[in-house]
């Protein structure tokens, strides 16, 4: 592996690690079907707690026979949280890059842990804002959900990667 050119070595490690982690995550998700997995429930619970603190009378309701968590405000269904909304896929991409790029483990572990916490925090803000958007002006919901927030989370990951590239030695 060390005899490979650095760019090819990076790419190979990144792809293999991404595929392995994503495969394991897929198996884990499938094991919880038809319920929502614990990570999705956890993101839902944390987001709901923040929204309750903001004055919403929010309930989380499992959607029967589907891996969804429904956000219900004052007995009105507002949004559903799906496993793709829990941030795990973004975290897998982040971890795969940092490990593939390499660097001292003593710096890599805290950097990865800090990055995961920030990604999780940003994702909670994202889900909370999407709830608010669906509750107040659903005409923009699809645009924000599909494009703006996806771009925002991945832009954060790219900035974190750039920081890792500059700081890892």
Order of helices and strands: HHEEEHHH
Reported for the largest beta sheet, the result is:
3 strands, antiparallel
End-to-end Cα distance: 21 Å
**Tally of discrete structural domains:** 1
- Strand tally, please? 3
Strand-pairing-aware structural class: mainly alpha
Low-confidence stretches: none
Spatial shape: elongated
Please give a quick description of this structure:
Helices cover 69% and strands 11% of the residues. With 169 residues, the protein is mainly alpha-helical.
Q: Could you characterize what this model shows?
A:
The protein is elongated and about 60 Å long. The model has no long low-confidence stretch (mean pLDDT 91). It has one domain. A hairpin with a 5-residue loop joins strand 1 and strand 2. Helix 1 runs antiparallel to helix 3, helix 3 packs parallel to helix 5 and helix 4 runs antiparallel to helix 5. The protein contains five helices and three strands. It starts with 5 loop residues before the first helix and ends with a helix. With 169 residues, the protein is mainly alpha-helical. Strands 1-2-3 form a three-stranded antiparallel β-sheet, covered by helices on one side.
Supply database-style keywords.
single chain, 169 residues, mainly alpha, 3-stranded antiparallel β-sheet, 3 strands, elongated
Please write out the topology:
Blueprint (H helix, E strand, L loop, with lengths): L5 H27 L5 H16 L4 E5 L5 E6 L2 E7 L5 H14 L3 H32 L4 H27 L2
Helix pairs in contact: 1-3, 2-4, 3-4, 3-5, 4-5
């Amino acid at each position: 592996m060390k005899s490979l050119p650095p760019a090819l070595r990076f790419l190979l490690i990144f792809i293999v690690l991404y595929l392995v982690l994503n495969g394991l995550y897929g198996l884990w998700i499938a094991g919880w079907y038809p319920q929502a997995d614990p990570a999705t429930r956890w993101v839902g619970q944390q987001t709901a707690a923040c929204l309750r603190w903001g004055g919403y009378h929010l309930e989380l309701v499992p959607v029967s026979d589907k891996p969804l968590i429904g956000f219900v405000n004052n007995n009105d269904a507002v949004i559903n949280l799906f496993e793709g909304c829990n941030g795990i896929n973004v975290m897998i991409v982040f971890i795969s890059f940092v490990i593939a790029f390499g660097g001292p483990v003593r710096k890599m572990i805290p950097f990865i842990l800090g990055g995961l916490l920030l990604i999780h925090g940003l994702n909670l803000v994202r889900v909370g804002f999407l709830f608010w958007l669906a509750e107040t002006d659903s005409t923009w919901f699809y645009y924000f959900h599909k494009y703006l927030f996806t771009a925002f989370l991945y832009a954060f990951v790219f900035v974190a990667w750039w920081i890792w590239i500059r700081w890892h030695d």
